[in-house]
Design goal:
Structural class of chain B: mainly alpha
Largest sheet of chain A: none
Largest interface: A-B, 96 and 76 residues
Helix content of chain A: over 70%
Radius of gyration of chain A: 18 Å
Number of helices of chain A: 14
Helix content of chain B: over 70%
Largest sheet of chain B: none
Number of domains of chain A: 2
Number of strands of chain B: 0
Oligomer: heterodimer
Distance between the termini of chain B: 42 Å
Distance between the termini of chain A: 9 Å
Shape of chain B: flat
Shape of chain A: globular
Chain lengths: 240, 101
């Protein structure tokens, strides 16, 4: 835990919460950009640029956007696309609940944007800080991630073909590496966190390997069951 | 259904679950047991987000993905820092693909 705290506080505390959020969001920007470029590139084979950019700007949920491209390409029914999107993104419901207990008290304005911009990555980066979050910190972190996603989509759509495929393929690992880097410092300090994360990974892998449910549901099931286990075995004092 | 309608519905069903808990629970302390559950969620989420997805992150060479993840684990364990971990894993995957592909 200490490790990521120290890294984060390399940003001067006296800077405005918004700017500290922007700085904390840079790893997410780096992770998102190549993936958004890839989305734009793939989208150019199926839909118009306006559709692709608006999907990134309005839906703003990577995995479900890739999935939608596949379904649109396969001429799936609209209801199936919308239902699959709901399932795939329902995990944000849990993250939103978790985040609600960490954000400092604030007025209504801002909550909508904070929720609209909530992603796996901005959630994970924010929660790794282990302290109360200023709403403007959260918005700073989220807005740079959003700009990276939308601008990457535009760029990928217009000149994606110029990006060497080798480089593209090596970029997919970036988001997973980000998740690993967020998790490892906590695992070092606590066996129960290691067990919780490992349990979630195991359940999700089993459910997906045996195609027991749609990926959206298996993610939700894995997160919830592991969290119940974690709440039972993890004491909040353990990490110090 | 028109593609614009599909995109707008996708946006709606994504936004509503993101919004409702924040809207209902912010500025409100929940019961301790529920809070413990919510506090552990980030770690469970990270575990489930990493596996099994990472294994498919380099479609043409799964070993490169495992090596890249190993690099991220080592760098974040011994050095810490998000950007260093992300950069090292991308470089490792790139080298694997360059040499092996």
């Amino acid at each position: 835990m200490q490790v990521s705290d120290n890294k984060m506080s390399a940003v001067p505390e006296n800077r405005s919460p918004f700017l500290r959020g922007v700085t904390a969001g840079l790893p997410v920007v780096i992770g998102y950009f190549p993936i958004a470029v890839t989305f734009g590139l793939l989208a150019s084979e199926h839909i118009s640029m306006a559709h692709a950019v608006c999907m990134s700007a309005w839906v703003y949920a990577g995995a479900s956007q890739f999935m939608a491209l596949g379904l649109i390409g396969a001429h799936s029914a609209a209801t199936e696309i919308v239902a699959a999107t709901f399932l795939m993104n329902f995990r944000h419901f849990i993250m939103s609940a978790s985040l609600s207990q960490r954000v400092k008290r604030h007025r209504q304005a801002g909550t909508g944007l904070m929720a609209f911009w909530l992603t796996d990555e901005t959630f994970s980066v924010a929660m790794a800080l282990k302290k109360k979050l200023h709403p403007r910190f959260m918005l700073g972190l989220e807005i740079v991630a959003y700009v990276s996603w939308v601008s990457g989509t535009c760029l990928g759509f217009s000149l994606g073909a110029f990006i060497p495929p080798l480089l593209q393929e090596s970029m997919y690992i970036a988001l997973y590496a980000l998740f690993v880097a967020l998790l490892v410092p906590h695992v070092k300090g606590s066996l129960s966190i290691l067990i919780t994360a490992g349990f979630a990974a195991g359940i999700n892998s089993l459910l997906q390997y045996f195609h027991i449910m749609k990926p959206g549901w298996s993610l939700v099931t894995a997160i919830l069951s592991a969290s119940v286990l974690g709440a039972l075995i993890h004491s909040d004092e353990e990490e110090g | 259904m028109n593609l614009w309608t599909i995109i707008i519905l996708m946006a709606a069903v994504t936004f509503i679950p993101r919004l409702i808990p924040l809207l209902l629970f912010k500025n409100r302390a929940l019961p301790p047991l529920f809070r413990r559950l919510l506090n552990i969620i980030p770690y469970a989420a990270l575990g489930a987000l990493i596996f099994p997805g990472v294994l498919k992150s380099v479609p043409t060479m799964p070993w490169a993905a495992i090596a890249g993840m190993g690099a991220a684990v080592l760098v974040s364990w011994f050095k810490g820092g998000l950007i260093a971990s992300v950069a090292s894993s991308v470089v490792v995957v790139f080298l694997f693909l360059l040499i092996g592909g």
